[in-house]
Design brief:
Length: 350
């Protein structure tokens, strides 16, 4: 039986940052994640994709952000149960919880923080004959390593931010980038749409709309695709086809825990501490929903901070909590030890 103060379900950026905030409050954390490594979607789907809205970083690669978060929490020595899914939860008479994974690992904790992002997810695949045959043979649903497409001809399909962002990024990597969308209008950010149009006029992106891919060709590896362009059929030679139609998220077993669910997200009380309808269970990051919710990493960081404050107050009733800023604590930076970090931020007075 693994024992901890806060059991965090999900090792994405929000879950990792929660470890840091909890550590400053002298709360021990353990993390469960279905993936074999920390980082969530940032590690699994787009480790080489730049992120532009993290405070203090004009641009940071998703994988580098994960590395930095792991370095930041190392001083608090969190535990990890990786490659396992949280399966069942039992609330004990004393208010603690026992969470068991799909592989039978049991965790005893005083609070649960669900930070599962989109939950378990699968790519939404286009309905094209023989598409499974070409998976890993020219069909890629995620861009994990842009170097795979170095000096290659690629076709991207989709109309959202991922399709636009990767078309822009890979225009400087691939020898030829073609972006196909079934409509003339895109759903992504306006600045991304404008950038794609600029690259189209510069000859760095071939933009085909309205159109959709209807066939795949190649004996052992993808060699070309068939498209329907406004009723006219033609064939385009390509080395890779990347359909980016989003993810199909699923909460998995967590959906059976008695939590209030709305549109595949967990409802929380954002007026206080992001607690669910079950006392002691919180949901932070993209997995939760509330009025005005924004699915941004920086919002998840904020939610993780308030969640940790709430858990601290529940576990330390009667103690007066005094917050200190690290910049005025008298400590010139952390020396890598848990003791120094704790002194830098928190002082509890009986």
């Amino acid at each position: 039986m693994i024992e901890t103060d806060i059991l965090i379900i999900g090792a994405g950026p929000t879950g990792l940052f929660a470890v840091f905030e909890a550590g400053l409050l002298k709360l021990k954390c353990h993390i469960i994640d279905a993936l074999p490594q920390p980082g969530g979607q940032l590690s699994e789907l787009y480790p080489k994709k730049p992120i532009f809205d993290i405070p203090g970083y004009p641009s940071v690669l998703a994988g580098d952000l994960v590395d930095n978060l792991m370095e930041q929490i190392k001083q608090f020595q969190p535990g990890f149960t990786l490659n396992e899914k949280a399966d069942t939860i039992e609330k004990q008479a004393d208010g603690t919880f026992i969470v068991t994974t799909d592989k039978g690992t049991k965790h005893l904790c005083k609070a649960v923080a669900i930070a599962g992002g989109l939950g378990s997810f699968e790519p939404r695949k286009p309905l094209i004959e023989d598409i499974e045959f070409y998976e890993d043979k020219g069909i890629e649903y995620f861009v994990k390593d842009p170097e795979l497409f170095r000096n290659k001809k690629i076709v991207i399909a989709g109309g959202g931010d991922s399709a636009l962002d990767w078309s822009i990024f890979l225009s400087n990597v691939a020898s030829e980038v073609t972006l196909i969308h079934r409509r003339n209008e895109f759903r992504g950010a306006l600045d991304s749409v404008e950038k794609v149009q600029e690259l189209k006029h510069a000859g760095k992106i071939h933009l085909i709309t309205p159109a959709e891919v209807i066939g795949l060709n190649g004996a052992e590896h993808l060699e070309s695709i068939d498209i329907d362009e406004n009723g006219a059929h033609r064939t385009i030679k390509t080395d890779y086809f990347i359909p980016l139609f989003g993810l199909s998220p699923k909460l998995g077993a967590i959906a059976n825990w008695g939590l209030e669910i709305e549109k595949n997200a967990i409802k929380v009380n954002n007026a206080l501490d992001y607690q669910t309808n079950i006392e002691g269970i919180y949901a932070i990051g993209d997995v939760n929903t509330y009025p005005g919710k924004l699915k941004l990493i920086l919002c998840g960081f904020h939610e993780a901070t308030l969640m940790c404050q709430s858990v601290y107050n529940k576990l330390n009733p009667g103690k007066k909590y005094v917050l200190k800023y690290t910049t005025v604590s008298g400590v010139d930076g952390f020396d890598g030890t848990r003791k120094e970090a704790e002194k830098a931020v928190v002082k509890s007075i009986d």
